[in-house]
Structure formats: C-alpha cells, structure tokens
TrEMBL record:
Domain of life assignment: Bacteria
Family to which this protein belongs: Belongs to the ALAD family.
Enzyme class: lyase
Name the record gives this protein: Delta-aminolevulinic acid dehydratase
Organism: Symbiobacterium terraclitae
Reactions catalysed, as given in the entry: 2 5-aminolevulinate = porphobilinogen + 2 H2O + H(+)
Oligomer status and interactors: Homooctamer.
Amino acid sequence: MSNLTVRPRRLRRNEAVRRLVREHAVSRDDLIYPLFVAPGTGVKREISSLPGNYHWSADTILCEIEEMLKLGVRSALLFGLPESKDEVGSGAYDAHGVVQEAIRSIKARFPETYIITDVCLCEYTSHGHCGIVKGETVDNDPTLGLLARTALSHAEAGADMVAPSDMMDGRVAAIRAALDEHGFQDVPIMAYSAKYASAYYGPFRAAADSAPAFGDRRSYQMDPPNAREALREVELDVLEGADIVMVKPALAYMDVIYRVREAFNLPVACYNVSGEFAMVKAAAAQGLIDERRIVMETMAGFKRAGADIIITYHAKDVARWLKEEE
Ligand SMILES: [Zn+2]
C-alpha cells in the first residue's frame, strides 16, 4: 500500500473534472480581429506575410465582417493603407480616408460591429515614421495634434473606440481632450501603452507597407529588455485617461502582461502580433506543430498571464475551435 495521500492527478482523470477545475478560459468575447483596409472597390488581396489575411476595400470587407460576426467575434481593429502618402501623413486624418470610409461602410451594414481603430501616422507618412520628422528625429509635440485629429476623424466616422499605437509622450491626453471637446467623451481609448521596438512586427510592416525609410523606431518604442519602464508608461497613460492598456507584442512579454495586471485595475489587452502568427503558420505548414493546439495553448497563456483582451490574427480560427469544443 502506498502512503501517498495527496494526488494531484485525481483532478486530471477525465475531461469533465479537468473542465471543472480549469482556472482560465478563453472566450470569443475576449477577441479582437485586426483587419487591413485599402482604397478602391472589389479588393481582396492576400497578404503574403500573413497567410489567410487580406487587404480589403470598404465594400469587400463587409463579407469578412459578416463571417467574423457569425463566428461570434464582435470587435475589429482597423488599419489603413492609404492611396498616397506624404510627409505629414494627411491620409490618416482625411475625413474620406480609407479607414474613415471603411467605418461608415461597416456601420451602415453591420451596426453591431464594435469598431476599434488604430491611430498612428506610420502607414500614412512617406518616411514611414509614426510622427512628424524633423531632421533625423521624430518630433514629439507637433505630432500630438495630428494624432488627435486622426482619432477625432475616426470617431466622427463612427468608430466605437480608438487605439493610439505611436508611442509619443502625451498622446493619450491630447486625444482625450480632442474627443471630449467635440462631444465624444464616451469613446474609450485603448492605449498601446507598453509597445516594444520588436522584430516580431516584421510581417505586419509588409502587410501595412509601413517600414521606416530611414532609421528605426527605437527612439519612441520601448527597449525590449525593460519591464519596470513598462509600468511607468502604463501609469502615464492611465493618468492621461486611457480606458484600456495594452502590451505589445505578447508572447515574449508575458511577464510584462502579468506585472501590468498586478499593478493596475484597468482592463489589459495584449497584441498577439504578426511575427507570432507567422511563426505558427510557417511551422504548421511544415507539419512541425499542431496549429490548433499550439494556438489554443498560447491563448490560454495570455489569459493566465492576466490579459482580458487578445488582439489576434487567429481570432476567427479560435472562435471556430471554441464553438467546436462547446
Ligand atoms: Zn506607427
């Protein structure tokens, strides 16, 4: 006879008991699906660096939104690829820009869609930086007004939430003030608070055509080895009026998600970025991993780390798999 009295395996014997004691669960309600909008009509162009993701025009995107809603994912995060670019990223705050038109198109057909917009200039500037460039540097303060104009134009087009991703100092306060001044005090801000200068964004740059023409983003995005600094960035965004704070990327920054979760009471989002997605897709295509299990395990990891919200290119697949598991 064994003298073991404590046997954790008792609670792992079958699926029923495992479900009963499960600590964290991913829900379709947690998911945000990123989508790329391009000019024109009838556009559905697969993004080679992000298999299964497309550039959509304001008309074709409706099919994707419909499918997303059918699967039980209600929130989309929109990125724009403008017709033309210039030094000051004027396409970003054009009332008839790509994102603004896509918002109107989606809201007219599927008003229940919760539309979040990425607020930044890098997809719209000829130099590919997230702000106004002076010499070789990105000039913080003159950029703030343009970011605020961008967020305001999204709200005017019908966006439900805005998400500044530029990492300029003081942008949340500038955006909050502009929204409030124009009657959009109920539009929340999801701040990309701890956004790192990461190599994991590689496939996105190709998708959004937003690689900087010179230099890199290390003078405004965070240095990957830093975690305490992330808490400081989050704190500032909270003080400036952020409603949700985000950690980006997710996989290599699980500790940061956890620390932010522990230190603040706001909802925490994480961005499961393009490089994380592309690595899974590449390994799965080679038969090296079980895509479904890897993705679901990763999603559970984000929840365990403390994320309330997961922004992911896997959103439709995750929703489908969750439905199958029910
Ligand atoms: Zn940017």
